[in-house]
């Protein structure tokens, strides 16, 4: 067996001079509470607080970061229980064994980094996973999961999560959120996020059915707008701070009223063309920005993903099964209509995420460096790794400074990875700022002030998180 | 108050071994005269040599690098006097106070780096700007500006600027340049640059009016070509070394003569279509290269900017008000017609600038690594920062070597930032070359030779600057 | 004269702590045999084993990496003997002198790095080339080339090349390969590679002529498919492990049978339109993947090159004369049809190469991180340099891990550069892994295991190289 330990200086710069500065900066924020303004934790998990049943349903099944690499290594998604409820113990054990046997497939990835942190810090694992100890580790973790201290709410406290946003369907009744807010036992502010994609993409086969779920009279375009406005109001009343958009592109060209009504009617009739559906969705992105100016919801955009790239896998295992693949993205021209209209609107916030790293210096930095509304979203999804985060840090801050950054978001479905992800970000912030101090571009007191802002004040400000700055 | 100082090792590598090499290389070029073959200093400033009136009109109003970040931070451009003549003192003070209060917005940016250098080296500032000392700093600098030693020409001498190119309208009579060249008191060679964009973009609403200012008989296409040729000749006679192009794309497809004439006629008649105007502009870029082969003007191209992104701001504050935003750019196919015809023409120089960093290794390096005419322009505008310059250094030189680089250009409207910008470039060159030496890829004598070439000989050669190599 | 030496730590990290780790990792693989699964050595060179005639025909004439930079520096390609047989001695000497006189044009490039290695390690050169010693070096190398120990086969042994793939025309009779395989004196496994580009691009003017050379009845589409299938079978029988594709884009949209037949007929009739030819080529890329699923040939794709950019040079000096220029490339949508059909086919391997570095993190990493068939090809052509290799290492492994990499390929026409290129890759692998160890992201035993895999097991596995892992 090989020992598994976490080095206190992990991810910090290796140059001893720079590392010393980085240690001091990291120290200043290491124990700060977590602000998580965008993620995918299920609020019912926190409301119902059931014990996690087994390591596989906790670490593998819901996390496409893990299953996609095992799939690439030849493990069938079925073996891993993708898209299934928790597996019976023999199958859960077999899936866990697959993970341990393919531990080397994760070398160099952030998934491995988070895994190491979670195993050591949450579950007290002391051995590197492998074929030989897979069953023993399964037993150890399964045993830990039966402890009350490892139930979801207890972990939420232990993780020091101050604010946690979930991602929710506009038609959701938000009952789980209501219960959580009413429960004095929950110290974390858990907020819903308005995610209207499927209601705006009128060419989807299930759109007519979906849109009926919004409530209100959606028989015509005016009623549809009113229904969306009402659902946003409902979300705001339940604590939502943002609305999240993940369309194929960042287009925001508005239509004139008659054209929008015409397309809406054809969508209702099931006769909308793909081109018209795209035009309508871009128009609605513009309209959503207008609503944000009215109701204050922060608007987040993360375009440029080809969803469900492998049709046969999507058909069998559903969405989010590991083959959403990025494409090139364009913001400058696509956002122009929206920004000409709302880019200087007081209080409007638009956070831009990308999985096409080219646009950090080419488009996002320049946009965030002029428009008061625009913030550069933290590296997201495929880019949430040390090298890409370092690229983002320099590419965006050299153009737009630190005050135009969104602060870190974890965007995760893997509940136990939340602290490790935020800790990684803090270490990388400390390292980057230490580099600026060591190059005599920034004084250490400024770096200290900046890292505190990045961890606490900036995400609060950008996402309008209620409560006081730390 | 916190002290403001400049560390002698700023921007040099932090590894002690590499830093030692970098110090020696930097030392070799630190005090060399400045060659500035592309920039935006107003030649009348140097001819008339008026004292600068106040810190705001010097540092803030003309510099969109500064005003865009303050605008993003919520300061209205009107407060900053964008697009205005020098402000009355109370407003100038208020603008300066805004800058000092938002000093943290510039952390990590090159603007901050240049500011620090200018405040310390030119004006002897010893305190970090902030809300508390804003007025005192205003007074201190305003007082300095009244000293004869801080008038434009005195600064020009102090900055050791040997060659300075301005950017000029083809219809300009170049009277200021004539006066400067005739004045034995001016040690710097000040040269105009031919910037014909607006005369080539025949779809612009003011084109017909503009083109008449060229002089000559521009009633037909032949006369138009002749007028442009004559204005270039005039510029050459006044010391111009280059012609600068900043169109939306890098297209260079020529038209046949009849088609060019036809479009020209429709432009004169005010009936040209956008597509025809674009085709004509690409054709004219080809024709400008042909003229460069004849008259020797170096051709510089910097496509890929969406100008005046925020219409309402442009309408109120004019162009260059901080919201020109980059877009993806393509050189390989776009330049092919021009390069097939002129890419090996003896003495033709084409310098390619980009704000889309992707093309450094993908297109610019490969083009500059084959065509004798093509040089890789130094990182420009949004990319004139340490990390992006380092990216350029490795991306281009690993493909095309050092001898295909343009040498540094400052491209600035901020007169006082010229020495800080060139010094930053020299430090980064020293650091990059030191890295090659430390990795045993280059001997130190070669690195020494290379940095001297980059600072002095290379820009002289690429831009055909008159005078002897140092 | 300045000494030319190779430092044992060249290319390793400069931080002393990291360097120590890197040295140990490099030591573990330094002397391992070379697996070269993609390159451009002529098999007849190895079959006939003639002495190399002179330094120019060895180092300059066949290597467009060298000639393009000399051309950019102003040396005519004719002087360098591009596209010619070996030059008479006076011209060969003059070409060599040009190289030595322009030695500084190669500073900072990998070509310079490989040159240094080859001169010192193979030919015992001890002086830096330059104008003064050009003739002496020519004589020294020419003399060495007359030694039996420097004939192609002797070098093959000295370079410890265990497996070497060449690149071959599908119509080639592979006589040279047959002879090599039959010769017990040849310890290296030399394998052909099936390179069908010109047979799939039905719009090429010489296509009809070419396709006849395939043999079989290519009068109709079915016969054409059968002929290609038969030639692949023939290549497999002669040891081929892969089929290599270098089209303008990565499109793989299949046509229905009738449409394919129709286009094929029009191609035979010489009336195919460019659009139809492109559609057919994309269809055939799909069909080639289908054949790979049947016959096991690994499929390699390297799209995104604008071939023969400078027409006049191509007309005079032929293809591969230094002006193939990259363009932006897209894989996500282009490969979707192929991957939906074959991306999970057992045993199908698809290796993606790019000269557009943007796609490493945006497309190649995500694709290789899901599809068992997809591997991320090593940095290729313009990107085979230290900084770009480092970018690839972090961009791909943080998304897809090390086990999705192809392992190094040298892709070279410069026979003597093979060991220097592989050694460079090993040093960079050691440096990258040492950085992960120093950042406490990987244990040193894992890094050791990983570098051994990258050098030996991974290329064997990905390219299905016969023989045992080391």
UniProtKB/TrEMBL annotation, chains A, B, C:
Pathway: Carbohydrate metabolism; pentose and glucuronate interconversion. It catalyses: D-glucuronate = D-fructuronate. Keywords: Isomerase. NCBIfam families: PRK02925.1. Its EC number is 5.3.1.12. The keyword Isomerase applies. This is Uronate isomerase. InterPro entries: Metal_Hydrolase, Uronate_isomerase. It is an enzyme of class 5 (isomerase). It comes from the Bacteria. SUPFAM superfamilies: Metallo-dependent hydrolases. Belongs to the metallo-dependent hydrolases superfamily. Uronate isomerase family. It comes from Micromonospora zhanjiangensis. GO terms for molecular function: glucuronate isomerase activity.
């Amino acid at each position: 067996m090989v020992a598994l330990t976490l080095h206190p200086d992990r991810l910090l710069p290796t140059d001893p001079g720079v590392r010393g500065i980085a240690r001091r900066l990291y120290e200043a924020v290491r124990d700060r509470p977590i602000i998580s303004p965008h993620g995918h934790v299920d609020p019912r998990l926190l409301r119902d607080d059931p014990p996690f049943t087994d390591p596989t349903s906790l670490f593998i099944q819901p996390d496409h970061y893990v299953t996609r690499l095992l799939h690439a290594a030849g493990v069938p998604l079925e073996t891993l229980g993708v898209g299934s409820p928790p597996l019976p113990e023999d199958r859960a054990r077999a899936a866990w064994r697959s993970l341990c046997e393919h531990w080397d497939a994760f070398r160099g990835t952030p998934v491995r980094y988070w895994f190491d942190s979670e195993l050591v810090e949450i579950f007290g694992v002391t051995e590197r996973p492998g074929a030989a100890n897979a069953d023993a580790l399964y037993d150890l973790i399964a045993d830990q999961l039966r402890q009350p201290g490892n139930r979801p709410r207890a972990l939420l406290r232990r993780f020091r999560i101050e604010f946690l946003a979930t991602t929710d369907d506009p038609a959701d009744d938000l009952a789980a959120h209501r219960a959580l807010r009413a429960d004095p036992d929950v110290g974390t502010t858990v907020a819903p996020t308005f995610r209207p994609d499927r209601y705006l993409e009128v060419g989807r086969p299930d759109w007519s059915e979906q849109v009926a779920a919004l409530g209100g009279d959606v028989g015509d375009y005016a009623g549809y707008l009113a229904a969306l406005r009402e659902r946003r109001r409902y979300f705001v009343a339940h604590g939502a701070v943002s609305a999240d958009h993940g369309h194929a592109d960042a287009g925001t060209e508005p239509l004139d009223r008659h054209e929008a009504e015409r397309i809406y009617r054809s969508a209702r009739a099931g006769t909308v063309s793909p081109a018209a559906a795209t035009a309508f969705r871009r128009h609605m992105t513009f309209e959503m920005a207008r609503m944000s100016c009215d109701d204050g919801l922060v608007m987040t955009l993360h375009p440029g993903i080809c969803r469900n790239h492998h049709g046969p896998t999507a058909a069998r295992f559903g969405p989010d099964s590991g083959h959403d693949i990025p494409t090139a993205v364009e913001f400058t021209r696509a956002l122009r209509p929206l920004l000409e209209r709302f880019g200087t609107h007081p209080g409007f916030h638009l956070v831009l995420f990308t999985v096409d790293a080219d646009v950090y210096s080419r488009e996002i930095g320049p946009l965030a460096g002029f428009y008061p509304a625009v913030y550069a979203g933290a590296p997201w999804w495929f880019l949430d790794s040390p090298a890409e985060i370092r690229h983002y840090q320099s590419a965006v801050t050299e153009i737009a400074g630190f005050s135009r950054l969104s602060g870190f978001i974890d965007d995760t479905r893997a509940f136990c990875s939340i602290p490790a992800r935020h800790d990684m970000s803090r270490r990388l912030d400390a390292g980057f700022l230490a580099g600026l101090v060591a190059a005599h571009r920034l004084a250490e007191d400024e770096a200290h002030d900046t890292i505190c802002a990045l961890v606490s004040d900036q995400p609060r400000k950008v996402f309008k998180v209620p409560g006081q700055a730390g």
